[in-house]
Design goal:
The structure is a single chain. The protein is α+β, with helices and mostly antiparallel strands. The protein has 4 helices and 5 strands. It has a 5-stranded antiparallel beta sheet. Helix 1 packs across helix 2 and helix 3 packs antiparallel against helix 4.
């Protein structure tokens, strides 16, 4: 029995219903490498000795495990690069005048004097306050300002 059948069965058992083809593909795509490996071991343990798994099917499933692990690694690296790029971009704002609007609707502006990460959020130090970089609305002249 291929892993896709095992995964589909597990998904159907957890939801209490049978899944459509799309739902089966989504449940397989969301498996972690550890879950995938557990399914493969379970499949090997429970296979019929009179009708063992086709060797090419085994190679295909093993390569699928390698692909899942590789994609997981690439995803983690991309997240790290994106975070680092955000810090570099924010650091370029040091010394610049920015305008911002907070989540509560308060508007303000000031010169960026520093950058810090706090709780996964990139914050700019503006006039002694930590302002999330996502709240910046303009860079350069302040709105209504007379700077150059």
């Amino acid at each position: 029995m291929p892993i896709s059948s095992v995964a589909a069965g597990a998904a159907a058992a957890s939801t209490g219903s049978t899944s459509s083809s799309t739902a089966q593909n989504n449940s397989i795509a969301s498996l972690s490498s550890n879950e995938f490996l557990k399914l493969l071991v379970t499949e090997l343990t429970n296979q019929n000795p009179l009708s063992p798994m086709n060797p090419s099917s085994m190679v295909q499933q093993t390569s699928s495990l390698s692909m899942v692990q590789l994609l997981d690694s690439v995803s983690n690296e991309l997240s790290s690069i994106r975070s680092q790029a955000g810090v570099v971009n924010a650091a370029n704002l040091i010394g610049q005048t920015v305008s911002y609007t907070t989540a509560s609707g308060k508007q303000g502006s000031g010169v960026v004097s520093g950058v810090a990460m706090a709780n996964g959020s990139l914050n700019l130090n503006i006039n002694g306050s930590a302002i999330p970089s996502s709240e910046v609305t303009a860079v350069g002249k302040t709105i209504g300002g007379a700077g150059s």
